[in-house]
Specification:
The complex is a heterodimer of chains A (110) and B (296). With 110 residues, chain A is of the alpha/beta class. Helix content of chain A is 34%, strand content 19%. Chain B has 11 helices and 11 strands. The chains are: A alpha/beta (110), B alpha/beta (296).
Amino acid sequence: MSEVVAVSSEGPTLDDAVDARFGRAAGFVLIDAAGGTRYLDNGASQAMAHGAGIETARRIAEAGATVLLTGVVGPKAAAALKSVGLAVVEGMEGRTVGQALAAYRQGKGA
Amino acid sequence: MRIAIASGKGGTGKTTVSAALASVWTEAVSRPVLAADLDVEEPNLHLFLRPVITEAHVANLEIPVIDAAACTRCGACREICQFGAVTILGDTPLVFDDMCHGCGACLAVCPVAAMSPGAREVGRVEEGAAGSIAFVNGRLRVGEAMSPVLIRAVTARVNGKLAALPESERPDVLLDAPPGVSCPAQNAVATADVIVLVVEPTPFGIHDFALAVEAFAPLGKPLTVVVNKAGEASPELDALCRRENLPVLAAIPDDRAIAEGYARGRLLPEMSPACRALCLDLARQLAALRPEARHA
């Protein structure tokens, strides 16, 4: 399975800021191995009273993500992500989506 | 009869009033009394009544257990769960115990009976006695969010104790309700014949009191008021009580000596002859609201 990186994001492009939240992130930029990007809106989870992290985990897993870059993942969402075998990198806030992706690729290459 | 002592806001004096009533009830109205602390998140009635606990029972919530081999991944459980407690991620059916409210809908809709009922401990029900006062309370497990389950378990225990006695020996029940007006408080007052709302005459107190009136009035039970920390006159509170036709049965003065006594775990009737008279009078007024008496 080829790698698809999902980055929690405040907007649909590589220049938008990483959303520090996972479950209640505005959306996710998904970048496939060839560098193509897609945007997955997560507005529906923002409106949930509870279970947003779990629902969001399901949504990105179904969209084919295999790696997640985000700020912080809550305990229930972490359990959900683990169950689908998604690799998680936390602490990516304060960057743009593109910078987060570059940092991840560099870290992986090193 | 059952009297729920409630308030819209925490710290208004529910437990002060509950403990005071419990301690003078039998003397005031010549009937046995049972005090139940339904504030299961932070029970504190025992600090004042100092009961001897003789029994404790575990209270469980029914949660689903999925047999992954039998599950067809149809998603019916996920569709019906309002709380996101059951889901299917990839190929894995998952239950998030902490989020389950125990409604059982997922078990009911599973087309292949891949789910079975399991149990999660939400807390414990304790019972005992403080002198002649029968006592029941609940202690929620730390980190647990589903307090209504335990509140209903405490109420069921109270019902069980009453059912075991012949009608002539059944005590009157005082329910110390949790603060607020949401699910825990609604569950606590649901079985009461009369609701006492404790209010402090401050802007926050009056605001939350108005919310409590709005929340509890539709239950159609007699609503009465005890003003705690009553200092200067509060025209706003008076107007609200008049408009909603709520009788003010007692006003506990805003007195430093009372606050100090409370901090040491003393009961209101012990603090002064005036306090004692006030509590006895409050108990008699409440007893007069007995449902049978209203029809007479």
